[in-house]
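Hi F.,

I've been meaning to write this up properly since the lab meeting, where we talked about keeping a consistent format for the predictions we share between groups. The idea is simple: the sequence comes first, exactly as it goes in, then the structure tokens exactly as they come out, then a line or two of notes. No screenshots and no reformatting. I'm using this chain as the first example so we have something concrete to point to.
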Amino acid sequence: MPSAPPSELWEIIIRRFGILSLICEKKEEKEKKKKKKKKKKKTTKNEKKKKTKKKKKKKKTKKKKKKKTKNKKKKTKKKKKKKKRKKKNKKRKNKMNKKRKKKKKKTKKKKNKKRKKKKTKMKKTKNKKKKTKKKKEKTKKKKRKKKNKKRKNKKNKKRKKKKKKTKKKKNKKRKKKKKTKKKKNKKRKKMKTKKKKKTKKKGRGKWGHFVLCLGR
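Output, unedited:
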């Protein structure tokens, strides 16, 4: 066996001694435990029952507590979920309402614009129709007036012409009558004068002409 330096040798000794002491300590502990176990009093049936009951109770309480905690957790989870869902629904509802209101406003605006346009168009058309009707009526009235005037003038012209013609005819007739009368009177006068002269020649006297007239 080769010789090792003194420092290394000491190290090996110390290490070995340490391991040995540890082994000894463990052995002592084991023996102590064994002795304690031997010293322990044997438990009675009632004590065992009691112990088991206590253990069961503890287990039950633990289970109950666990259940309670589980239920509480479940409840909290449910509550949280409900709250979350409520919030989500509210948000969605608000969004929808906002959208609907916006759409309604837009539609209303569009409708009003359309209605206004239609109203204006209708008013314009109505006014145009009214104007056209008025114009037509005016033209009709003017035409009728013109026609009536023309007819009246024609009638008046005809009447005047007829009147003139009749007057002319009448005057001609009257003039002719006058002329004839004048001629007749002249003839009569002539005859009278001739007869007078004749009677005077015969010498009938004062009542000669009267008698002649009577005889005629």
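Notes:
Helices lie at 6-39, 45-202, 208-215.
The chain is about 95% helix and 0% strand.

If this format works for you, I'll send the rest the same way.

G.
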